[in-house]
Protein 1
Amino acid sequence: MSVEKMIKEIAKDAREAACKLRSIDTQKKNSALEILAEKLLQEKDRIAKENAKDLSTAEKKGLSPAMIDRLTLDENAIQSMARGLGEIVSLPDPVGKTTGMWKRPNGMEVGRVRIPLGVIGFIYESRPNVTVDAASLCLKSGNSVILKGGSEAINSNMALAGIINSALHEAGLPGKAVQVIPTTDREAVTILLSLGEDVDIIIPRGGEGLIRFVTENSQIPVLKHYKGVCHVYVDEFADLEMAYTICFNAKVQRPGVCNAMETLLVHRSVAGEFLPKMAEQLQKAGVELRGCSETVSRVSGVKAAEESDWPAEFLDLVLAVKVVSDMDEALVHIEKYGSNHTEAIVTRDYNRARRFIAEVDSSAVIVNASTRFNDGNQLGLGAEIGINTSKLHAFGPMGLEELTTTKFVVFGNGQLRS
Amino acid sequence: MSVEKMIKEIAKDAREAACKLRSIDTQKKNSALEILAEKLLQEKDRIAKENAKDLSTAEKKGLSPAMIDRLTLDENAIQSMARGLGEIVSLPDPVGKTTGMWKRPNGMEVGRVRIPLGVIGFIYESRPNVTVDAASLCLKSGNSVILKGGSEAINSNMALAGIINSALHEAGLPGKAVQVIPTTDREAVTILLSLGEDVDIIIPRGGEGLIRFVTENSQIPVLKHYKGVCHVYVDEFADLEMAYTICFNAKVQRPGVCNAMETLLVHRSVAGEFLPKMAEQLQKAGVELRGCSETVSRVSGVKAAEESDWPAEFLDLVLAVKVVSDMDEALVHIEKYGSNHTEAIVTRDYNRARRFIAEVDSSAVIVNASTRFNDGNQLGLGAEIGINTSKLHAFGPMGLEELTTTKFVVFGNGQLRS
């Protein structure tokens, strides 16, 4: 069968499964997830065997130890997937939730009720555990999902797909609710991105290259973020002790993720006191600083920042630092170089906090806490399938509710339009 | 200046205006709308003069009387625009509304606050009054808007744009918040649809041809519906007296709109009693019936329906009629031929009503009322900019809230991620 025919069939099957999933109740969906968790633990040897094939190819290809680590499905990784499933079982089912109901002057009751989006295309790289995470979030929110993982994880992903499939059958759910595309052919992605009739939404997760490829080639709406160029602005009224800990946490706690701080903005009136001490802490932790001319003159060991450092997502122990003469300059800098992802202010001033929240156009705007909190789990959504920095549908982390939409329901007793 | 350069400049200006609009308060926006209402009435002669140019071209081109009627901006039409502005002033401002707020175990408060989408591209046909409607809805929801109307209304639209512009200036709002593309060049649309950096969302309103052209050529997400193939299902447990009035209203009250009934589905067990009487009423009102074989055999004067009649949006006094053997058959028919727009059931049975609501995948699912109620005004949204039958962002009529999104705000006191 040609790749095109195969992907079209997968999409048609996904649409059919989505119709059935619409009216399946929570218990059945939870039961499928519980069965899946059990099966993953039972089948850990089979998973390990298939995973070993991917690991051996990866070693031959000379993938980095970090990449190989992310690819590995050892017992720990499998237990962690099973625990993740348990957490999703415990989350409330968004489907069927009435988000509002009101009565019209003519006596009709009008409500809005959450329903699944339909069919989700999920395109991702290396980590095979994402296969189970994404499948379980889509299933719990009543959507069917087509998963396209990285070629380096194909054997692991196919093994997981088989286990997911048998769990769906055992729970009495349509097996085609979760499908893994069984090929490493890149054409499969391009074809999937053209099937707007059968696929409602595309969620890509991975590096900026993948995301740009998907966005440029998709005829289906894409929920995604390209990068997180997150700023912390240390205001002239900041509690400097708090500012040290927040900035250190935002940069150092996990530098390789999208909600880590990439640029530090410091109000001139506190720069003299704050910057040298902050720089020392960061440099001790191995952070390379690239500063504006004022930063360079105030702190030793700082490289002069180039223009390309301001919009950069370093994803590493590198930080751009700029002294600003007032809050306006900080806001203008964020507007120009930011990525609408996450911005934080450290201040004790009530009006500065209010203004920062009102004017910064980011999916999360944070007062006096680390940027690292922009995450579905940390914000209280329970789990996330990704972060969206386009304004459409859901701005910011997307949890179960964000994988649904609402329809209007109307209860009348014979009302006519005049 | 080339069309491309012009449209790019318009989009850049719209983005800049959108930044300013983000933190402008309700009073100022309302004041701009009130000033605009006054100005429209004051400038009615100038509007009429420009409108006369469009009308004279339309007559020369031989446009239909209905089209010319829609193009006409007489005193009535202008007063109606001014009244519409008053209604939008009276609606609550969605921007800044907190849709939820909760406390995390670490003491952080997390909330979601409504913010504007940003820049909206609105592409529409003939009616120039839509220029004022769309501009006022976008402005009230804090968005800037780029309007591209039909070539037949260009003089009227430019006159309205001038008046809107001077109202914005008088109210102290950025003049570029509302821009009308000052050309009838079709290339302008294609260019606008490519400017994803500066335009956040495209809303087309018009015939299916326009909508398909926009969707196929847009690199920006499009909120739209192609057509409304709305069904009424008269169940075996229907109150038949109610069913006559609902079906008559859904078909006849205004047949040329997207929420009018296009297909009537009747349960076999009531078809013998219901169909002949219903058909007589509809035929008396000039409705042409196209029926399944059973309908043809039960009712006189019914044409046999062809396959192409089932997915058809007639927008006219034409109705497809099918007898179904049970509710399952009705649901399968709707799933196959429906447009996810509006579906209604007439029944006295509690379980049938519940099941119809759960299983029908339409933006409005209605029990015992006319399909004609799927409209932002009628459902209580206050006003609508259009109806969306894609699941993304907002399914169904889009009012002021649907022209916004939410961002997360976080209030901490030094929280760090561990």
Protein 2
Amino acid sequence: MNSDIAQLVSVALYSPKPDESVAFFHSLLGMEISHREGQSVYLRAYEDFYQYTLKITEAAEPGLEEITWRASSPEALERRVKAIEAAGLGSGWTDQDYGHGRAYQFGTPDGHRMKLLWELDYFHAPPELKSKLRNRPSKRPLRGVPVRRIDHVNLMVSDVPQNRRFMTETLDFRLREQKIGDGGVEVGAWLSVSALVHEAALMRDATGARGRFHHVAYWYGAPQHLLDIADIFSERDVLIEGGPAKHGTTQAYFLYCFEPGGNRVELFGDTGYLIFDPEWQTVVWDVANEVDLEKSSIWFGGQLPRSFYRYGTPVVPGHGLVEIGR
Amino acid sequence: MNSDIAQLVSVALYSPKPDESVAFFHSLLGMEISHREGQSVYLRAYEDFYQYTLKITEAAEPGLEEITWRASSPEALERRVKAIEAAGLGSGWTDQDYGHGRAYQFGTPDGHRMKLLWELDYFHAPPELKSKLRNRPSKRPLRGVPVRRIDHVNLMVSDVPQNRRFMTETLDFRLREQKIGDGGVEVGAWLSVSALVHEAALMRDATGARGRFHHVAYWYGAPQHLLDIADIFSERDVLIEGGPAKHGTTQAYFLYCFEPGGNRVELFGDTGYLIFDPEWQTVVWDVANEVDLEKSSIWFGGQLPRSFYRYGTPVVPGHGLVEIGR
Amino acid sequence: MNSDIAQLVSVALYSPKPDESVAFFHSLLGMEISHREGQSVYLRAYEDFYQYTLKITEAAEPGLEEITWRASSPEALERRVKAIEAAGLGSGWTDQDYGHGRAYQFGTPDGHRMKLLWELDYFHAPPELKSKLRNRPSKRPLRGVPVRRIDHVNLMVSDVPQNRRFMTETLDFRLREQKIGDGGVEVGAWLSVSALVHEAALMRDATGARGRFHHVAYWYGAPQHLLDIADIFSERDVLIEGGPAKHGTTQAYFLYCFEPGGNRVELFGDTGYLIFDPEWQTVVWDVANEVDLEKSSIWFGGQLPRSFYRYGTPVVPGHGLVEIGR
Amino acid sequence: MNSDIAQLVSVALYSPKPDESVAFFHSLLGMEISHREGQSVYLRAYEDFYQYTLKITEAAEPGLEEITWRASSPEALERRVKAIEAAGLGSGWTDQDYGHGRAYQFGTPDGHRMKLLWELDYFHAPPELKSKLRNRPSKRPLRGVPVRRIDHVNLMVSDVPQNRRFMTETLDFRLREQKIGDGGVEVGAWLSVSALVHEAALMRDATGARGRFHHVAYWYGAPQHLLDIADIFSERDVLIEGGPAKHGTTQAYFLYCFEPGGNRVELFGDTGYLIFDPEWQTVVWDVANEVDLEKSSIWFGGQLPRSFYRYGTPVVPGHGLVEIGR
């Protein structure tokens, strides 16, 4: 897959309960704390190669601070910056964040904050975290059910086609799967820059709000680990929204839950399927059709509740988990 | 990963027992037969998108007929053909094989036959094989423990550096992992054109022979399936050479066996790890060092027998499975 | 566990679509057909040691024909027959069924037909089914996702305490778990004669009907196999009622589906937990309490639909799957 | 299964490195420390119902202190004590150990110390360990890959038939499986008092020594957990002797390792198969026959090294792991 973007680097989230949020990712999902600075804590999964993939910052409301992408080369970075500027969505260069070099900031049409960069810091394990596996950046932790690496991000948008076009035309993503609903309205898009079916998904915000965050996903790679973490969540009052179950779209074996700050987190039990075909034709699910509607969301394993389509962060008044009926 | 090659399309093997070979892939590994022509049978796994990924042809000896790669674009195909011609290893264009358009044939320095193409036929499921999963090219079969897709190919070579340079410089692969043995001799190389750690591996042929075939690998994605197929193999006299166990290199959870024609087949129980970093630094295992020697081959799960390094197809006299002590 | 009953031997079901029912158990669940006689087909899982564990007989309506139990010894058989006769529920001896010796027939207070015996026929594999595992009565099949052995039976009853007392006092089962609902009404009972948490469960029939059948369960032992069979069911129009998910009661990782004749079948993904304590205190779930209500049915993995409590076989008019909303 | 013995309660081991031994069971296998007293630490797995199942006591050499069994009833206890006394192997009553009531001490013919009792203390979870699963005695821990319960014990004996007869005739075990070697010599016996294939195994000590300990086994129930713990062991210098692999005898999916004190520990990845048949015929493996020899030890997954048959605790001079070649 030849794209000017190489990968998802990290997701920065706001949490009104930062200590509890960090404890969730550290103790239950086994993530390592790389750094603390100001009101922020930086974490990584044990097979994440860079300095961090998650940043938790204290704030009054949960939600997305920023998503960081890495370009495929210095030249690709320049090309994308020009495209973003041409689209009128750029905010200029910054070099202020921990673990990253110079980065270009911008927003999606819906207003989600993003950053694109080439230079960044690799994680170098201190002796006590060093693995004997030369291709593993740090030892498998002994806490909780440890996730292996960041996988993707999902954004709620007020207008799927507009934001999807920004992702494909301006950012050079490929459209891998798509859901078309009643009246031909595009309600979901799965986009990627690699063999993964998605590093980014866009779904229509059923509340009509703009620029909200749906979830960040971390990857396990073994289906059993979803059963293990679900067992732990049920025992420790972590709310599971859906799963363990299998999506039709992406074929992911998934579990959705909420971290204590209120942001949704997805855990990914296997790889789904991978795309190597350079002429990939977008898989289109016609969700006005009942079979596609049912099979695309849940291939097996129960149902996704109403909250899945209405709850995002920050929370829209009247659409909190309690009001939706969770 | 921006490479002029997009993916491994198919592997063509010779078998002295073609009916038994086809029965092995069809009944035990659940592959579908797409086509029969002359002395050849074409098969695919249920999540392979093209017309076939395996071709079995009757011959006096087992071994490799040909490996087919797909370029990233028509332009990429032209670039690579020029590079191959410049290397003096090209054999010219052909359009004679089933399911493929015009293709350029060539050999590796060691003499393994390969083919590069852009045009090829997709598999279109007949109604009885059509899946309700729009991203799955055909229904999950009810036979054996069905593999999901082709994963990679492993070649034995007389000279690793020479063949590895051909793969990276002429074919545009990236070197992901490497084993360096006594005296700094390179004894293994793992190469890829996507997020997979390898679509091709090269390993030194301990017999000194040239151009032999080590194995083709099919992917399951769920560790349990290696236990299932191992149970079936043990019950039905299929010789398991190693595994289920986990390699250090690539982190694959693997099983090696022999199909009835004598060619080695690997089954891949999970995804190992994936590479998204555009500046990936080759992971180097120093197998003159005892820890690396042990951990790179087998991270856990027993040992690889002598045959793993000496048995390939065609068989070198004196190095058949019986002589090696299997 | 010292009980006069040793184990569940077999379940005999009626099916209005016997050919399709047999095809379901044979092709998808990989069971072997042991025998055909009159309108009946006899099947076994590949690790069932006796001649059959399932009998399918053609009839106008789905439902239970009979459940067969084996006593712990000839003396235990005599003791239980006396107890059944004393309870006024016996129907006398028979020696007419295939694969069984002399058996004593009786009914539960609710009218479910049962049979108790000592003598029965073991399965002796013909050469083509013989396993190299001396503790496995026949080879692991290559069809579908093969179940390993019969596990338990679940009966809907009009009055749980009455039927539960019959099971414990007359048949010598132990009460392992229990659900108590509003007003102290017992709504569910899990009973066993071995380390299993249950070979028999009783649940209150929400329709008030008597003597209906809820489900028979077959055992996989590996959680992945529930994902595998769910994938196959979703692709082939087999209705999944609930799961793969984990019950709180028994801690079973389960999936419920309907065989084509309309009877419910449970597949058991692991062993749950086992009971070895000779003084086991019944685990009591207070389902008038909200936490227990939720956690006992589903520890994780979605919800059980209304049909789970109202649909049984034979079907009560107005409570078919369509009317219930499946 | 009607036996005068109900279950294995606990195993007490000596360790020359008690702190490291306890850390191994606590941090890697997730066991809870119930109690400390003198030079001893008492531990339990999170689904063990009694106060402890493992006792580690400091001593100069590793090895077995004692195995504790629970009788099926107070009367069964009396019957067995009489039988043991009649066999001349009793040592009298004691009520001195933590968590146990009055117990009768004795030795096997080979000299392994054992204890039989009826009264003992149940574990009652403090609030912070209390599970919402009413059938789970304490929360699933967040440390390592937590084992669920004690499973069985394996003893090395100088004379299998003599010790096996003591187990069946004096202690009321049933002989489930058996290995017969050259010249009809019995080299292994698997014995149980429940549906498990074994709570006790006896294997011939190839060094000819008497009364040594081979291993204690803890149960996971999910095959993936053996891969998880193997990954952790490989990273942290815990020596894996064999597996993850599947035995033919018992059909267990196993892993053998050594705790830091030198005692062998088995981890059990699934349930193998269960025995409910009251007339069970001992499964006899003829290990003078090559197929049975190979298939009984390892059904799939590599080989068991020489140490498996020669290394036990306490260590026989000349047969330590280093001398044997590990």
Protein 3
Amino acid sequence: MDNELEKISILKLSERGSSSIEDVVAKEFPLTIILNNRELVTLLCSPANLRYLAVGFLFSEGLVKNKAAIKRIIVDDQRGAVRVETEGDEELASNALFKRFITSGCGRGVSFYNAADVQDQVRVESRIRISILEVLALVNEFQHRSQVYRTTGGVHSAALSDTTNIIVFSEDIGRHNAIDKIFGECLLNDITTDDHIIITSGRISSEILLKVARRNVPIIVSKSAPTSLGVRLARDLGLTLVGFVRGKRMNVYTHPGRIATNGK
Amino acid sequence: MDNELEKISILKLSERGSSSIEDVVAKEFPLTIILNNRELVTLLCSPANLRYLAVGFLFSEGLVKNKAAIKRIIVDDQRGAVRVETEGDEELASNALFKRFITSGCGRGVSFYNAADVQDQVRVESRIRISILEVLALVNEFQHRSQVYRTTGGVHSAALSDTTNIIVFSEDIGRHNAIDKIFGECLLNDITTDDHIIITSGRISSEILLKVARRNVPIIVSKSAPTSLGVRLARDLGLTLVGFVRGKRMNVYTHPGRIATNGK
């Protein structure tokens, strides 16, 4: 975690006076992703799990289909670059640049998807169910896991859960990056996302929803609000969208059948 | 404001039971910016002040230098597009596409700037001063202005202030968009930003800082945290960065001389 923090001197002010103290802020790091020797993009991110971020990003953007397609990954911490070599180039990268779709919410913002991607996305099918108490327990554990957030107040977090435990956890200054790191780790370590749950600290916009649907995840849970397009995509793609999990309450925006109100 | 909201039916759940209610979420709207007949980008935004957003975006990306450069703006609400025609094209738009720098924090995320832009940015010089009590009063008024946030919990807000009053206010699902809307409005309505203050609900990353420095704004105030690069840029470019304004307290990260602890 130390790598993700930077110490600085700040002045704390209140009506009563001022004091100079040492504080920490979340480190912001420019990471360039180089796909098959072509500079694809530079992300501003937290400098941890760069390998997972690069692979998760490429997967989210449809530039890598599966683990087998990846021949080699070289992380260059010093120069802030991850080089990824894949089987067959198919001019995907260069085409992708002309299908930009910039984001909105709290997060990276570029997405190389367009309307056609949404149409191509198959509906998520899953018979998984989770109880209200399980959702509350997971979100509670999720909040306790976020070390950088508690230290700096300046990052987002995301997690993958099997309804009982948190299996993969990540933090990043960008909410998109945090989710891409989760999926990158899953892809490289053969962790299934089917019948699992994504938990996020951030708002659920259309891009976040599409990213999660692509991994066939049936339930997404957030402490924050969704946007109208996030809700519409969740409805159309068969995902259960749970927002505003706060205290002992939550809002279910779509497909509530997967949330059991009494046991399972 | 109604235009920025969408009514939906949701299920409210707690341990005690469930109830089906009408709720509202923040509308997410894809807006394509067409510069001199070329599709530049599609932003996901709140559907208000699209004209300001388009101009503010073009200005932030260095594609429009001033109001005089704009020949014509046509807003097409139905098709989700704003067409902007400028004096001289200079192939700026197409070049810009190859200088992408993707973001991090909560916000749009693409920025067409690169390291050279930071070097070109001149230091902000301003003798403006503001007292702690003025900062607290402004942030208090700022929070009360945010109608869509209070209704949906799903948007960011930004404001321009002259230290006493809020002069321009905007809300958007993206924190970058909210600030671009402010600057677009200033540019089109000849509102100066020199010696003024930007207030934002969002975290202050390097891109936000650079955007504000470009408008020669000497003070940026946020309820949230900055990132390490945000702090470094503020220090190098001469901006006073105030974060974590909560209750009666705040943190001053850089150039504290503009914050008067007793009167001015």
